[in-house]
Specification:
The protein is about 35% helix and about 20% strand. By secondary structure, the chain is of the alpha/beta class. The structure holds zinc ion.
């Protein structure tokens, strides 16, 4: 089975379209989507439609929860709060109901999906400290835990026998081809594919992962897209200009 892992699409239809186009040559069997499919960008309904057409396995992120009123918007900064109110107004009854049905975590074959951390998913914490990484991996009952939220790609390999991190990969070259140990008795992996629609690692190209679960290889890929159009649509929609500007620099 070949999986495409998409996270933090953030209503960026230009980025999502470019990624799906690039994935056409990859013989993907299943699409897994790690939350924050909406919020910030100008095309929430269209992005949800594309994911539905793909039959993607989806979970909720903090932006879905905020749109549904399940998360206090006081938790967000001004630009994010404005985007949440705007997004909620763009979505119809059917779309909001679809968001309401999304779970906070899901299991699909060898993968467990969570947006922030797996051990406390409803807190939507940024998984940045080693202690959180280990708590999430210890809560994970499958070989891999797939997370998003930080918009920065990373792969962590954890040795359960030695109870320590064996590898932490952040460099683009190393992330482009990772050989995975498939023995789930001994190993756990944390994989953040980065963000499709609002990368924050200093590169504007859409970020996502491809995992081949037969040969157990993993690749974080980047795809350039029409950033200028996505940014212009954000401005034209009356959304905060900084949400457009940051796409250009990938921050
Ligand atoms: Zn996000």
């Amino acid at each position: 089975m070949r999986y495409a892992i998409l996270s933090d699409i953030h209503a960026n239809l230009e980025a999502l379209t470019a990624v799906l186009e690039a994935l056409k040559a990859e013989r993907i069997d299943r699409y897994l989507c790690l939350g924050d499919s909406v919020g910030y960008g100008a095309d929430p309904a269209a992005c949800l439609g594309r994911l539905q057409e793909l039959g993607a396995v989806m979970i909720a992120g903090n932006h879905e929860w905020a749109c549904l009123g399940k998360l206090d918007v006081g938790w967000f900064n001004d630009a994010a709060r404005a985007a949440i109110t705007w997004t909620r107004d763009q979505l119809g009854f059917v779309e909001l109901n679809a968001l309401r049905r999304l779970p906070l975590t899901a299991t699909e074959g060898p993968f467990t999906l969570a947006h922030g951390t797996l051990h406390q998913p409803s807190r939507f914490e940024y998984l940045v400290e080693l202690g959180q990484v280990i708590d999430t991996l210890r809560a994970c009952r499958t070989l891999m835990c797939l997370v998003g939220h930080t918009h920065v790609p990373v792969v962590v390999e954890y040795d359960r026998t030695k109870q320590k991190v064996a590898r932490m990969l952040t460099e683009p070259r190393k992330l482009s081809d990772v050989q995975v140990h498939e023995d789930a008795q001994r190993w756990r992996y944390l994989v953040n594919p980065g963000s499709v629609g609002q990368p924050r690692d200093g590169r504007p190209e859409a970020s996502y992962a491809i995992i081949d679960a037969d040969g157990w290889r993993l690749a974080i890929r980047r795809t350039a897209y029409d950033v200028a159009t996505a940014a212009r649509k954000i401005r034209d929609a009356g959304l905060p200009a900084l949400l457009a500007d940051r796409l250009l620099v990938g921050r």
